[in-house]
Specification:
By secondary structure, the chain is mainly alpha-helical. The chain folds into two domains: 1-181, Up-down Bundle (Growth Hormone, Chain: A); 196-378, MFS general substrate transporter like domains (Growth Hormone, Chain: A, Up-down Bundle), CATH 1.20.1250.20. The chain has 16 helices and no strands. It starts with a helix and ends with a helix.
């Protein structure tokens, strides 16, 4: 294993996670400072999603022309410049531009972090190290809101709060610039294809189902508890925090004790357990909802597996997963909102469970397809 690449990936993920998880804390500040309506303030996330989609699909061709080192350094410089431009935001239109940048930044750092770890790990240890990487995302998702609240309570502006991420970015750039060797690009060699085969497209489909199921489960949990169960906002937020704690702990357990022979059982088991707890929460005991965070290991374990099975195409598949994941998230966020308006939040919040069920079924189909694919290579 190449620990320099792994630590670079961790640096990048922490940067992206801090930006991502700061937005929820800062949203009420945006609303108050710019006198926004509820629909306008939600535009912060919509604009961020647009930025994420644009940047991820730009990375697809760029990642095959430039090394991860160059991409990390360039996006690091752009990130620092962009974060300091937050002080120039004075109205709704410039806030949307800035929010689009934030979405693009977290997408770049999230995607590059996975590429660094894939490049720095051998096939045998990849799934385990992926769990370690995404465990750090969970830890940052807990720490970032606490730091933002601390900065704001001490009088720091929201722009200054976000600009503090530049300290992490400078550290990342120094580490990457010094520790990561530059790999010469072979202009005469064959260029990797940006297209996917049928089984690889099925993999992207599974990830899209999972990502939307996981994110809708967590992001709409507070709204569901407040509107359908009449919980206070403070209590509902604690349930959401518990969801991320469970997700982080399960990834940490896989990082510490993962064995490849357990992979199929873990991948299916964490999804089935999460779905069962989600249904149980709907039936009455709401404490089951945060326990649904046991699905956490699926993403890093399956991404590690896919990068082993399709080793030559791992970079392309990873970026397609992130890009299409952002697209489906945008669609399904709108879907949940429309369902909530027409059917009520109680019924609309069944959608994450249906998506997890779809993930289980699609993954079951994949296992057979994968066996046939590997037999064909022999």
């Amino acid at each position: 294993m190449n620990w320099r690449f792994i630590f670079s990936g961790l640096f990048l993920l922490v940067c992206g996670s801090f930006i991502d998880n700061s937005r929820g804390v800062l949203l009420p500040v945006f609303t108050q400072d710019f006198h926004l309506s509820y629909s306008q303030s939600s535009g912060v996330f919509i604009a961020g999603n647009i930025g994420s989609i644009i940047v991820t699909f730009l990375l697809l061709p760029l990642s095959h022309r430039f090394s991860e080192k160059k991409l990390a350094l360039v996006t690091g410089v752009l990130g620092i410049l962009g974060l300091f431009l937050g002080s120039q935001v004075t109205q709704f239109s410039t806030l949307m531009i800035f929010a689009t940048f934030l979405g693009g930044a977290l997408a770049a750092y999230g995607a590059l972090s996975n590429l660094f770890v894939i490049k720095g790990t051998d096939l045998k240890s990849r799934s385990k190290m992926m769990c370690g990487l995404h465990m750090m995302y969970g830890l940052t998702s807990i720490v970032a809101p606490l730091l933002c609240n601390m900065f704001l309570s001490r009088g720091l502006s929201w722009a200054g709060c976000l600009a503090s991420v530049s300290i992490l970015l400078v550290g990342m750039m120094i580490f990457v610039g010094v520790k990561i060797p530059e790999v010469a690009h072979n202009e005469e060699g064959p260029k990797p294809s940006l297209k996917l085969g049928s089984l690889q497209r099925w993999v992207v489909f599974i990830f899209c189902l999972y990502i939307t199921g996981e994110v809708l489960n967590s992001m709409w949990l507070v709204t569901y508890l407040v509107e359908a169960k009449s919980f206070s906002l403070a209590v509902s937020a604690r349930y959401l925090s518990a969801f991320f704690v469970i997700m982080t702990l399960t990834r940490a357990l896989c990082f510490l004790s993962f064995q490849e022979r357990q992979e199929n059982k873990l991948l299916l088991g964490c999804l089935i357990a999460s779905l069962a707890l989600f249904v149980l929460g709907h039936l009455g005991p709401v404490w089951a909802f945060p326990l649904g965070g046991v699905l956490g290991p699926f993403f890093p374990l399956f991404l590690g597996r896919v990068s082993r099975v399709f080793h030559q195409q791992s970079k392309t598949i990873t970026l397609w997963i992130f890009g299409m994941g952002y697209v489906t998230l945008a669609v399904f966020h709108l879907t949940v909102g429309k369902l909530a308006m027409s059917l009520g939040m109680e019924r609309a919040y069944w959608l994450p469970g249906l998506l997890i069920l779809g993930t289980i079924l699609a993954f079951g189909v994949y296992l057979k397809k994968e066996r046939d694919y590997l037999k064909g290579l022999q």
